[in-house]
Description:
Layout: E1 4-5, H1 11-20, H2 27-36, H3 50-59, E2 60-61, E3 66-72, E4 79-84, E5 90-98, E6 101-105, E7 109-111, E8 126-129, H4 132-146, E9 152-155, H5 165-176, E10 188-192, H6 196-205, E11 210-214, H7 220-226, H8 230-233, H9 235-249, E12 254-259, H10 267-280, E13 283-288, H11 302-314, E14 318-321, H12 335-345
Parallel strand pairs: 1-2, 6-9, 9-10, 10-11, 11-12, 12-13, 13-14
Antiparallel strand pairs: 3-4, 4-5, 5-6, 7-8
Helix pairs in contact: 1-2, 4-5, 6-9
The chain binds S-adenosyl-L-homocysteine (SAH).
S-adenosyl-L-homocysteine (SAH) is lined by residues 114, 116, 118-119, 156, 160, 191-193, 214, 256, 258, 287, 289-290, 292, 332.
Amino acid sequence: MQKQDIRSMLPEELESALVAMGEQKFRAKQIFQWLGRGVVSFDEMTNLSVPLRNKLAAAFTLAVPTLLAKQVSKEDGTIKYLWAMEDGNTVETVLMRYHHGNTVCISTQIGCRMGCTFCASTIGGLVRNLEPSEMLNQVLFTAKDSGQLISNIVLMGIGEPLDNLDNVLRFLKLVNHPDGLNIGMRHITLSTSGMVEEIDKLGLHNVQLTLSVSLHAPDDKTRNQLVPTNRKAGVDALMAACKRYFERTGRRVSFEYAMIDGVNDTKEHLEHLVKRMQHAGGHLNLIPLNPIAERTLGPSGKSNLDTFTETLRQRGINVTVRRSLGGDIDASCGQLRRRREKERVT
Ligand code: SAH
């Protein structure tokens, strides 16, 4: 029989498993608390007897990531981690220090199959989904290594969270649990390239996180080119799904717009974007594109960025420009892993 991954299990599942093993139910809470503190072996669970620890080790696997690389920004204290999973695959995690608290940006997949033309994470395609424990471990071990308290989580690293929805939902339950890290849903943001059916599925679960859609273009012609998944349903259908999401959850959707020189930053794009945003409501985050080595696309100039910001603001849109953190350390996600993969090949 295949061993179960214990850090992906919820307390009630641990309870049933323990009862089936002839153990007492209350042990589940103790074990879950240890797991949520980032233990690396069952022997650290010192309030359990040695025979029980041995029994657990025989019945379950305990996922522990290995730290492969760590970059600390001298500019703003951002820390970027590259972890190896048990099977040798690698993922990135970023710790960002804001005034309102520390935020961890986690990866949800190994690679990505969305194919966005400006993004480093998708270049090698999708390798596999991350397990709930592998997402949780990014938070736990980032906290452990940095010695920092984590107050916010963003699912904005490598991968498309809605393409791994079941594991992401389970991760949310684990991280939100009062006996675990107890991070409130309102402190969690999930960023998606805009998978329409999955936005509806997420809406049905009514988790109170912030859903952020990577819009990047207001029209199908431009968006099809930048975010190929748009070809499935189109911008109209995406915006309609966002509206349904709001109606179901009471949580307004946010939008991200990476400004790319000559691609999505013309006056026509701006006018269209204003209309889309006036209709949708919600917050818009403009992000100057982070140039990546493999792509020729570049960020919009300052004057275009200013024109977008001012016009949108004047027309009543709640718009901010994302402050870029960690510019000196392989800024956007996917780049550190990508470089490592290239080094392995060459
Ligand atoms: N797959 C999800 C989450 C991961 S990407 C999504 O698409 O939203 C997180 C955010 O970074 C997305 O808004 C994505 O479009 C953006 N992004 C990716 N590469 C970028 C780059 N080179 N410059 C700026 N933003 C980028």
